[in-house]
């Protein structure tokens, strides 16, 4: 009698943990399917002809239904290569500026004691709470005055300003945790303050820079608002805007619509596949604890 | 040739002054240790010598040059940090060669110096490793090697051993001593471990709250502390303090109303004083033969020696260092006798009365 | 050693001595970021606030109206109906995110923190929608929910629930909820990641200690983990609130267009501001009223952030871990 509760408890324990694991996997797998399903449906159907899309939307493209007609329409009608180029230029240059200028500012705020330090830290971080879009009216006027409307430069400036606060915030928090000794050591070794930043601090914050890069990249690449307002000319359209307008014109040509969506999705997925490990380790390293 | 002189050096962070005017002369080749409780300003003072912390007042002179406004790298110093501060993206060789490469030194000279330092510290086989592939002791050695390579006039150490385990700490302490003998370079060393201070230092500087309490050789501080703070800080276990009343020029009575004659320079007056005696100087006798007597509260047996904590009716137990083989147990009464020359007397501000005779070892 | 020493000694007197660094480098480090941020983010915001106090005349000049624009927006029925409707819709949007997105994110994060097999894969894949442009997300869901294509209807029928199907995005009653849920689908990855990171940062010893104290799985989560991640939940809430006023526009604009159809049931502050500013169909653009709507959004956000900072964040003790 005395030992029965023991065995039963352990048995119950085992079956319970098995049951728990099954539940955990069921929920996670279920949600993963929900997360991916729409994307997969679109990509699959983009490789079908019109009939395939409508009769069997959930089937894989087969010999009957396989077709690249959507892609050929998109590539011949839209200037997607140009749009890609625009998006790429805007995103890469903005990211570069956000990371470089943000890291420089974060370094100054975390490393040096000076009178305005506290005020400037708060000032830089204000932008996290206030979406830059609220200033759209004035941004447009400013761009008109600077003669930058319908240029990629206007987008680059706005995105850099938009990305800086969160970059400065995350990097400052992280740089504060860097050992002071190592910078002092570099000082004793005779490095100038600039070289300390480039040769000692930057290599140390590289993983966090990657996280900031991914986080800043998503809203820039995907933004619709500012391209629509500041740079909607044909020569300066970004992919997001291009796709949006293309779809607007081709609502009846479903293969073209699906193909253009797929074209817009794929590069992001590829980039994500490359960076995802870094992204997650960056987040979990505590840099984004807030 | 390259003495280090601090003249009324001060440091304030914002409005709070943390270093209140330090004067110190370190002669060439000396091993000087700064000790003091946490937060007393040891690191700050060291960093001011290094040039990492701006000086709010006074002068730092190295050799015959005031270096207040000179960059750390041009002061002829090298520094070893508590956290080692190795560059994680460079291997051991790269870490050691870094400063010289940066100064644009000749490759051959760099190589020669790095190999030499690696040889001194036994790092030859580790030169290709990254810091994260090294143990704590090895990292510490690389950090020291990096300082040696720069061939400085003054080495600065900020608690370099405090991240190491006890055994390694003892071993590195000996290595540091040997290094000092070999290089004969000035070394300034910060620690809050008084054993490190006693064993390493030519002279110890005891700091408290940004002021120097006393400067002297380890034995001077041990035998002739200038005040109760230094007396309590140097030596382990801590010196025992007994409240007492001064009767004549040099006679005091304690609580237990025993009359004790202390061989110090006579002073006029009477009043409350503090009597100090180190645990290792107390003689243990039968209860009725002792100047004072009390009950054993705890016996800490370390094997070779035993610390008896004795209740003399004060708040803090009185500690006696006895032989490892003493039989006394908790609850037993014992008597205590104090050899006169081992007694210390402090006035109400904690200032020590001068001993009439200097200790034989330092006379 | 002696070789090296003498070489060093020979060189030393001639060495050029550099002075300690001054403050110029601080300016160099800070100025570029400060300039760009001030010119393109802070100045426009301040300028918008200023413009909201003016009104345009027919000849293009501006006159000071004080709070006149605000009075119109809040009380003139031409404006106020749309304004209150948009604000209300924004709050509903926020509410749906708070009760669906964040609990779901918490659930997923909690499950992931149990370190199941393939946890990394789940985490990576669930985050995918967050990366996509809202334009894409909008159209994907529009297609899937569309009665024309019939994917959603087909799937519901397949499990015998076909009768439940309705063209949700087109119905006044369900459009806003449908849009909100699409947004939840897209952004749930963010709270999931933030909460997951917070859960990971709880030291194992603490959980071991709880186990030793006799707590088991569910109770450990409830009694130990949850209290420790409350500050993160607070941050998630305030980020959700701010996100409402930015990312929601893109989604609604690309699914529903700028009028917030049907019958303004999905009209939010963002679309209202866009319409006011640029004009739409019969209405002509008005930068002053646009600036006023933007400023109102600013104040609404400010109220939310203040409530968070004063009321919530202070009460959420942050524990050292
Ligand atoms: N950057 C700073 N800003 C303000 N106060 C400081 C700063 N650095 C040190 N202090 C203060 O100066 C005093 C001395 O600090 P310091 O680091 O020199 O102490 P320490 O003797 O090295 O202590 P420990 O043994 O703990 O290392 C402390 O009270 C500390 O709070
Ligand atoms: Mg210190």
From TrEMBL, chain A:
Q: Transmembrane residues, as ranges?
A: 21-44, 81-106, 118-140, 152-175, 196-221, 254-275
What GO cellular-component annotations does this UniProt entry give? Answer: plasma membrane
Q: Which InterPro entries match?
A: MetI-like, MetI-like_sf
What protein does this entry describe? Carbohydrate ABC transporter permease
Query: What is the membrane topology noted in the UniProt record heading this document?
Result: Multi-pass membrane protein
Among the GO biological process terms of this entry, one is: transmembrane transport
**Which compartments does it reside in?**
Cell membrane
Protein source organism = Mesobaculum littorinae
The ABC transmembrane type-1 domain is annotated at: 84-275
Give UniProt keywords alphabetically: Cell membrane, Membrane, Transmembrane, Transmembrane helix, Transport
Lineage from the top down? Answer: Bacteria, Pseudomonadati, Pseudomonadota, Alphaproteobacteria, Rhodobacterales
Give the family, as the similarity comment puts it.
Answer: Belongs to the binding-protein-dependent transport system permease family.
Automatic annotation (TrEMBL), chain B:
The record ties this protein, via InterPro entries, to: AAA+_ATPase, ABC_transporter-like_ATP-bd, ABC_transporter-like_CS, ABC_transpr_MalK-like, ABC_transpr_MalK/UgpC-like, Mo/tungstate-bd_C_term_dom, NA-bd_OB-fold, P-loop_NTPase
Q: Which NCBIfam families match?
A: PRK11650.1
Q: Which PANTHER family match?
A: MALTODEXTRIN IMPORT ATP-BINDING PROTEIN MSMX, MALTOSE_MALTODEXTRIN IMPORT ATP-BINDING PROTEIN MALK
**GO molecular-function terms, A-Z:** ABC-type maltose transporter activity; ATP binding; ATP hydrolysis activity
Q: What family, per the record?
A: Belongs to the ABC transporter superfamily.
* Assigned keywords, A-Z: ATP-binding, Nucleotide-binding, Transport
Name of protein: sn-glycerol-3-phosphate ABC transporter ATP-binding protein UgpC
What is the species of this protein? Mesobaculum littorinae
Recorded GO cellular component terms are: ATP-binding cassette (ABC) transporter complex, substrate-binding subunit-containing; maltose transport complex
Q: Where is the ABC transporter domain?
A: 4-234
Q: Which domain of life is it from?
A: Bacteria
From TrEMBL, chain C:
**What is one Gene Ontology biological process annotated in the Swiss-Prot or TrEMBL record?**
transmembrane transport
| Domain annotation ABC transmembrane type-1: ranges | 87-309
Give the top-rank taxon of the lineage listed in the UniProt record for this protein: Bacteria
Pfam families recorded for this chain?
BPD_transp_1 (PF00528)
Q: Does the keyword Membrane apply?
A: yes
| Matching PANTHER family | ABC TRANSPORTER PERMEASE PROTEIN (PTHR30193), INNER MEMBRANE ABC TRANSPORTER PERMEASE PROTEIN YCJO (PTHR30193:SF37)
What's this protein's name? Sugar ABC transporter permease
Q: What is the lineage of its organism?
A: Bacteria, Pseudomonadati, Pseudomonadota, Alphaproteobacteria, Rhodobacterales
